[in-house]
Amino acid sequence: MRRFHDVRGRIAGLASSADVKTLMACVRGAMKVAVWDLETGAFRRWHPYADEPVSSLAFSPDGKWLAVGSEVGMVLPYYYPELNYDGEYHPGAPVSGVAFGWTEGRSDCRLAMAGDCITVALMSGGEIDKPPSGDATSAAAVAFSANGRWLAAVNGNTFAVHLWDAWADRHERTGELDSEPRSVCFSADGQVLAVAAASRVWLTDVPSLRTWGACAHGGRVAQVAGHPTRNLVASAGADGTVRFWSADAAAGERVYDWEMGGVTAVAFAPDGLTCAVGGVKGQV
């Protein structure tokens, strides 16, 4: 375990680059993101964003892009590794989450942005494409399956889970939970969707959205992240623990507690060898 340089404030999101050389974090209310060397743990610098608080960030699977969303309603796509940007997206509402996914054939990447509405941009096009079809007026979080076919979103107001076939531009199904969902991710094989709601991680089949498992975390779950190569889901909880769950059996595999207070963010590196977590006190 390596403890990175502390930052001031609550860690809202973490992301590892595709080349597994860079770890970035956004801090709630801050107008910049923290950059670390993932191999050594050395803090590199603060990267300025804009005159808006950062809410979320994600790296593209092709390694070319970093997307940073804001609480005011703008997403900046940065070229990686230079971290300079060309253009910006304006979804028209505060952005609560961003996610990248492959197009069919892996010729390009899509960027999904969650907020009062869900919008999708094709990276080669440089502008927002039409929103996904179906009834999903707002979303707290979005996620793509590893192959990019499935796009999922959760709505904290209606307790709904939405699923699209992104390749066919078709709304597949809507499911409902009995508590407010906050985060969503896919298993490595794309067959299971994990949703963080209250103190549980709910597991549903893709594409039926039939809920078949509920993993009790023990404290309110802030985020979930899917392992890139194993059917494993990590959950970050207010009880200060990070828990690993089998996405095949809905069974706990491991628990980590670093006594860092509430854990607010979790992310796997694309090679699956590193899991990064962040907390309310700015520790990573």
What is this structure's SSE topology?
Blueprint: E1 11-16, E2 22-27, E3 32-37, E4 43-48, E5 54-59, E6 65-70, E7 75-79, E8 84-85, E9 97-102, E10 109-114, E11 119-122, E12 127-128, E13 141-144, E14 150-155, E15 160-165, E16 170-176, E17 181-186, E18 192-197, E19 200-205, E20 211-216, E21 221-226, E22 232-237, E23 241-246, E24 252-257, E25 263-268, E26 275-279
Summarize the structure.
By secondary structure, this protein is an all-beta fold.
Instruction: Classify the beta-strand content into a percent band.
Output: over 45%
Strands side by side in the biggest sheet: 1-2-3-4
Shape: globular
What structural class do the secondary elements suggest?
mainly beta
Query: What is the H/E string?
Result: EEEEEEEEEEEEEEEEEEEEEEEEEE
